[in-house]
Amino acid sequence: MNDFxxxxxxxxxxxxxxxxxxxxxxxxxxxxxxxxxxxxxxxxSEKGPEITITFSxxxxxxxxxxxxxxxxxxxxxxxxxxxxxxxxxxxxTAQMHKExxxxxxxxxxxxxxxxxxxxxxxxxxxxxMSGAYIAIKPEKGKRERHFAGxxxxxxxxxxxxxxxxxxxxxxxxxxxPGTPINFHGIAVGEVLEYELAKNADNIKLTIFVxxxxxxxxxxxxRFWIDSGxxxxxxxxxxxxxxxxxAALLAGGIAFRTSSDDKTTDIVPENTSFQLFDGYDQSTxxxxxxxxxxxxxxxxxxxxxxxxxxxxLRGIPxxxxxDFNLEIDAKTADIEIPVMxxxxxxxxxxxxxxxxxxxxxxxxxxxAKGLRAQLQTGSLLTGQLFIALDLxxxxxxxxxxxxxxxxxxxxxxxSMNQIVNSAQAIxxxxxxxxxxxxxxxxxxxLESLQGTSKAxxxxxxxxxxxxxxxxxxxxxADKAMSSAQQVLTTLEPGSTTQYELNQLLKELxxxxxxxxxxxxxxxxxxxxxxxxxKEK
Amino acid sequence: MQAKANxxxxxxxxxxxxxxxxxxxxHLLSCPRCNSHLHAxxxxxxxxxxxxxxxxFFLYIxxxxxxxxxxxxxxxxxxxxIAGGIxxxxxxxxxxxxxxxxxxxxxxxxxxxxxxxxxxxxxHFRWQINARRWTVMYRVIAFVGRWSMLDIFMISxxxxxxxxxxxxxxxxxxxxxxxxxxxxxxxxxENFDPRLLWDxxxxx
Lengths: 535, 204
Prior knowledge:
The complex is a heterodimer of chains A (535) and B (204). Chain A has 535 residues and is an alpha+beta fold. Chain A has helices at 7-46, 127-130, 245-250, 279-283, 358-367, 414-431, 434-489, 495-523, 527-530; strands spanning 47-55, 67-70, 73-83, 90-97, 109-113, 116-118, 121-123, 133-137, 146-148, 162-169, 180-183, 186-196, 203-210, 222-225, 229-234, 237-242, 253-256, 272-276, 291-296, 309-312, 315-323, 326-327, 334-335, 337-342, 370-376, 384-390, 406-408. With 204 residues, chain B is mainly alpha-helical. Chain B has helices spanning 45-65, 82-91, 95-125, 131-144, 150-161, 173-191, 195-199; strands at 12-14, 21-23, 69-73, 76-80, 167-171. In chain B, strands 4-3-5 form a three-stranded antiparallel sheet. In chain B, strands 1-2 form a two-stranded antiparallel sheet. In chain B, helix 1 packs antiparallel against helix 3 (95-125), helix 1 (45-65) runs antiparallel to helix 6 (173-191) and helix 3 (95-125) packs across helix 6 (173-191). The model of chain B has no long low-confidence stretch (mean pLDDT 80).
């Protein structure tokens, strides 16, 4: 050990080399240490908080693959999925990036984004290839590390500029979240969610209208369902109105701003509006002042519907709001009180009298003979409407009014009157002695038969008469032919005619000489006695 | 026998470049024949090997904890560490390939690090060992070193050649670290002078 290396050689040479070698070769491990240390530090420093999210299902989620994204930027990754103790939900553990720390608060929402293909559009298509991912909607709030995931994406995924409004309707139809809101055909928003009102009598749709179009939601803005095809036939032909193509398939809502509204009429967020069933309905004026009256009709109200119009000489002034059946327990009378809502603002009052209320006006009109009458609006469907008109002769019949509203007198329908009189006629007919009448008629028919036999005999006699008449006709014919012969002898050029002509000439001469004679005698009547004087 | 076992002990230094045998008593610093630098053993063999070995140790840590490659499939990255890749291969039923990668990427580098470490300790503390066997170990380490580049080779081929439209393979930070580990251990093995094992042995 001590003597197998030559100390003089080894010591001298090694000492020189050591000084020269040291910094160069030992830089290498220092560099390696720095590089790996930096790599590890970088990874650790980028590592953000670990969070847990509870979901109802792990559909589409994979450990180490599913990402957590905000605005399509990866901010975390699922690191573990376990089933919760209740065996109904799952818990996702996610490793978040460091920068996400600030917005992991108690108001932050998580949901799983999967491909969705609907009539109104396709979303999350990228997830078809890359798999589902967890989306996040950051909100300000308290720091939180344990979250409950949403089953459905939240109503507003991004903080878009605009405002929410409420639409009230009775029928959701084909509308739902994502249904577009159109303004003059521009898609300016969409339905976020719908909710059945607590008393289940209408549906509240929450809609979102993007800025700047939300400025057009004003006091008199009207919303209507703009889906499907609106075909109407009128005096000027057929009219076809359709919404946008997407609305045709998936339904849509449109709105229109009234020209009466100014920018000062812009309504605040979450204002409620009525959603009309169609464009035509939305164009009708709404009258807020209404007067309710009750009408008792003696006739059947079959064909009368709630909402049926009330026309005063053909102009709508109100509508039927309700009707029901009342049976008086004492008298067993059946009554049908029909509630009618009259909109007095539809009627322009001229010569306005001071201090007269609408009710007083109605009383005045009733006194003049204004009555309500059920009339058939359409013969095809049998729909009824209520017509108001003046029937000065009809009497006011009052009923046992239990509704608390002013009663409006009615008069039977003219159609019903006709039916009633027809009924009366039918009754009379049914009272006729039909059997005795048939016996009488039989007798009459028998005597008629005898008469016809006598008539046959008369006809036979007439036939004989006719044959003798025939003979007479033959002899007349003969007479006629002899007359023909006579006439041929008188033809021009025949001797008889020449002679006749001669005779006529002579007769003319004779007549002229007679005329001369008579003229002479007129001048000289004395010549009859004295004879002709010589000149 | 002891005296004959060692050239140096007999007063000779063999020139590393031309093989010329020089008597140490001459105090020559360069070979009289080829004029190259004369040294009895690899100069600073232990120091250099230790430095290289330490460097590879430091790099071996990131090489194993970071992803060695990321498979980007339709935009969704899927990162694999060395160990994770092996587990996935075995899980997918590719057991032979998995074993190959396990040997080449984990067993060989780690056994190399331990082996060179042991050799260094042995040479430094002059452990009395079976020098013949330890030399065999050294030879195995020096020979097998290059095969650890299998993983790196595979990744470099995949990164360049795989182009399936949607699929894209990106080498991770561990790949660089791992390649450095392999190269550094190869250098460390080169720099270790196995004669040092023999120099310390009292009985041969």
